[in-house]
Design brief:
Helices cover 36% and strands 19% of the residues. By secondary structure, it is of the alpha/beta class. It folds into 3 domains: 209 residues, Rossmann fold, CATH 3.40.50.970; 160 residues, TPP-binding domain (Rossmann fold, 3-Layer(aba) Sandwich), CATH 3.40.50.1220; 190 residues, Rossmann fold (3-Layer(aba) Sandwich). The strands form 5 sheets. It has a 6-stranded parallel β-sheet, with helices on both faces. The longest helix is centred in the middle third of the chain and has 21 residues. The radius of gyration is 25 Å and the shape is globular. It comes from Poseidonocella pacifica. Belongs to the TPP enzyme family.
């Protein structure tokens, strides 16, 4: 490393890491690095140059050794969620398949609007050694490679072809990662030769910089339009999405609801915006929601949607609302604020709710609020019975109820894909704000353990005495379980509730509900498996260094959970659950899925006709 006046000579890789280590963010008056470190698996595409640079800052930017690139990306998303998108982790992978493994994780971060920086190896810019190990040759465009596949799943994408580019590229990437409207993954491709090339960088480029998350004030005219719509409402309702938490607007949401006596329902991403006991919390909405929330949604005439992208599981594929209901959408992202002929309020949720409340001289009718509370009381009674041990064969709901009763209010709960997101969303009773992470934006199997590991790393920086609890099915476990080992190695304890129903049971349920016979989902229904058998999960878990035990029923699960809480390392509790009788049967809105229009099966034909019978309620918007 040499310097001249006002400059410093560094490799491209060294410059990237030096700059990243000097970027800070102010959170509640405290300055900390905006990047909490990274997850990495080295290969020939990133070990020699980027690895050398990262070794120099091993204290400032700790690098967690991954077991699988996909799970590294999931962990980065779990970390960002725990930090409410105020901090992020980077992922580094080698060229070729190592980088390609991050594609699914990038899709998850993109769908959930989560910041994640990817620093990935690329083929040589000079092309002198082409074709190289793990290079995908494209016959008509030699610049086109594996890394170009990340363009659809990145909010920012660049390939560094010269060391000077990082002066422009890095600030642009970070601006994307911290922007409330454009937040999502940023990808930077690093050709193997360019990583080691040098440049005389301006020293001031590496000066410490403190960032703050932008809060966009809403437009006054849009606020006025929203106020006019709300004043005319006879049956108003608030949909609270994940953006409420990312804006740190929970207090403003609660104050708005209380001041104007407007019932609130939560999206899957917005679970834990309000406590379960709050009298205006009417429950989760949508396909995996509650009878209470869906009951008021179909009657509401004005719907204030705050911080939600109105995904089909929230809207019941747009059948959950009256066709003439007016939606007022508050969102930092213009793309999300204008959906389905909404009145848009483009702005920060915290500022927008405050502005709406100040301008709104209105309270909902006592009869409307009373009816909403009556619906919630009926739903609470259903959930209390649904989670009760012994009311039917072992079920997801029973396991959820046991953990809900025994966990600490500040423990974090994680679930993803399969049947557990629906069961957690419907049955979990929120004990404290911001304690639930149900990944259903991308509905990605495998997130459960990896995302929980990332959340635990962040949680250890915030609330080290709390636990991260993840609910995982046997299907997701078999798909991606290696971060149990990661959690043990890094001493980031997890509690994993591993609920075994013998395969992909929730898709088997959908298969049966659409008139189809069970086929290739449960192990016992796979024609290519002559003699199905279950995995010895306890043996598998203990082989990775964690503690594990199998229990026979919810009562034993409760005692095991107490032992898991007392343990100082990752603890897995295995329980068999019924694949057919254990599901939550209430609370579901219609969901559009493709069903055969022509079939030889009377059952499939009848199911198709029944499914299509609800289409008449579908809202036709843009």
């Amino acid at each position: 490393m040499t310097t001249t006046e006002g400059t410093i000579r560094l490799t491209t890789a060294q410059a990237i890491i030096r700059w990243l280590a000097n970027q800070y963010i102010e959170i509640d008056g405290q300055e900390m690095r905006v990047c909490g470190g990274g997850f990495g698996i080295f290969g020939h595409g990133n070990v020699t140059c980027l690895g050398e640079a990262l070794n120099r800052v091993r204290e400032e930017l700790p690098l967690y050794r991954g077991q699988n690139e996909t799970s590294m990306g999931f962990a980065a998303s779990g970390y960002a969620k725990q930090w409410l998108r105020q901090r992020f982790m980077f992922c580094t992978a080698s060229a070729g398949p190592g980088t390609a493994n991050l594609l699914t994780a990038a899709g998850l971060a993109h769908a959930n609007r989560l910041p994640m920086l990817m620093l990935c190896g690329d083929t040589f810019i000079t092309r002198l050694p082409d074709p190289v190990l793990q290079q995908m040759e494209n016959y008509y465009d030699p610049t086109f490679g594996v890394n170009d596949a990340f363009k659809p799943v990145s909010r920012f994408w660049d390939r560094i072809c010269h060391p000077a580019q990082v002066i422009q590229s890095l600030p642009a990437a970070l601006a994307t990662l911290l922007d409330p409207a454009d937040c999502g993954p940023a990808f930077i491709g690093l050709p193997q030769d360019v990583q080691g090339w040098t440049f005389d960088y301006p020293e001031k480029f590496f000066a410490k910089k403190v960032h703050r998350i932008r809060r966009q004030s809403p437009d006054a005219d849009e606020i006025a339009d929203a106020v006019a719509a709300l004043k005319a409402a006879e049956r108003p309702m608030v949909i609270a999405g994940g953006g409420v938490q990312y804006s740190r607007a929970v207090a403003e949401l609660t104050a708005f609801a209380e001041a104007h006596q407007i019932p609130v329902v939560e999206t899957i991403a917005g679970r834990a915006n309000m406590l379960a006991t709050h009298p205006l919390n009417i429950g989760p909405i949508g396909v995996t929601g509650s009878d209470s929330a869906n009951a008021i949604a179909e009657k509401a005439d004005v719907i204030l949607a705050v911080g939600t992208r109105l995904q089909d599981f929230t809207t019941g594929s747009w059948t959950a609302f009256a066709k003439d209901a007016q939606i007022v959408a508050v969102n930092a992202a213009r793309h999300d604020a204008g959906k389905h002929m909404s009145l848009p309020v483009v702005g920060d949720a915290k500022l927008s709710l405050a502005a709406l409340s100040a301008a709104l001289d209105y309270t909902a009718s006592q009869s409307w609020v009373a009816s909403a509370r009556e619906e919630r009381a009926k739903w609470d009674a259903y959930v209390a019975e649904n989670v009760k041990p012994g009311n039917r064969p072992n079920s997801y709901a029973q396991a959820i109820g046991v953990v809900n009763d025994l966990c600490d209010p500040r423990d974090r709960v994680v679930a993803a894909a399969g049947g557990l997101p629906a069961e957690v969303t419907a049955n979990w009773r929120t004990l404290d704000i911001g304690t639930v992470d149900v990944e259903f934006g991308f509905s990605c199997m495998g997130y459960e353990i990896a995302g929980a590991w990332g959340a635990r790393i962040a949680q250890a920086e915030q609330e080290p005495d709390q636990d991260t609890i993840t609910f995982c099915g046997d299907g997701s476990y078999m798909m991606l379980n290696s971060d149990i080992y990661s959690s043990v190695l890094s001493r980031k304890k997890l509690i994993v509730m591993l609920l075994d129903n013998g395969g992909f049971a929730v898709i088997n349920k959908l298969q049966n509900n659409t008139g189809n016979e069970s086929f290739n989902n449960l192990l016992e229904d796979c024609p290519t498996i002559p003699e199905p058998f279950g995995v010895d999960f306890v043996a598998h878990v203990t082989a990775m260094g964690a503690s594990a035990e199998k229990v026979a029923n919810p009562a034993e699960l409760g005692e095991a959970f107490k032992r898991a809480k007392a343990s100082d390392k990752t603890y897995v509790i295995v329980m068999d659950v019924d694949a057919y009788e254990g599901w939550t049967t209430e609370g579901h809105a219609w969901w559009e899925v493709g069903t055969p229009h022509i079939t030889d099966s009377d059952r499939v034909r009848a199911a198709h006709e029944d499914w299509e019978s609800s289409r008449s309620k579908q809202r036709r918007g843009v």
